[in-house]
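protien #1 (seq + structre)
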Amino acid sequence: MKIGVISDSHGMCKYIDLAMEHLKDVDLIIHAGDNYKDAKYIEKNYNIKVVAVSGNCDIGGIEERIELIDGKKIFITHGHNYGVKMNINVIFYAGKQNDADIVIFGHSHIPFYAVEEGMVLLNPGSTSLPRGGSEKSCCIITIEENIKVDFINI
């Protein structure tokens, strides 16, 4: 199973389109918020299922969700309610409390990947407005026997 992960696209469809050039062979897209409507854009234009959460710049939508995908429990949230711009402690414990295998978040616009106590913590960065000297980015999670994460600069 291959999952494309994007976040913080902020309605900038030209960058979503660039990301989708790299994500065309994935089975599913996860959008970690800021702009919830972008998930509908992807579904409509690329005919692929998108699992999305809303972010701090969205009105309405689902702020967090847990999905069981290919045998892995994935906790998805934008991250603004967990202070991810400061550190990952709160989101780490939220992931542990939810017994997650993978925690996906955005909000900081900076790519992040770590494995802590067997749990993957992942921020794909921003497809449109990167921060901290990073590039516009997205990533692919490959779930086989192990979980593999590949970042893609767009």
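ok now protien #2
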Amino acid sequence: MPIYAYKCESCGHTKDVLQKISDDPLTDCPACGASSFKKQLTAAGFQLKGSGWYVTDFRNGGSGAAAGAAATGGAKAAEAPASSGGEAASATPCGTACACH
């Protein structure tokens, strides 16, 4: 269940409330009783961690697990056409240096 921050527009009282997403928002201030208790917009209270997320892989300009995997996969893909044989390269009019193989 998420925690929502509320603030009364009349008296300024603030309160954090643990509610279900399906629950109706609170409207009555517990401090002054006015019906101006409003839900506030706040930042998320969690941080995503692990391989593939910005914090670990992309903060330093692409150095990390994802960048290493992309570089390794690209090298294997570049080697595949060169080692496939000369027959396919000679049969095509564009040669072996193009990107269509």
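The longest helix spans residues 65-82.
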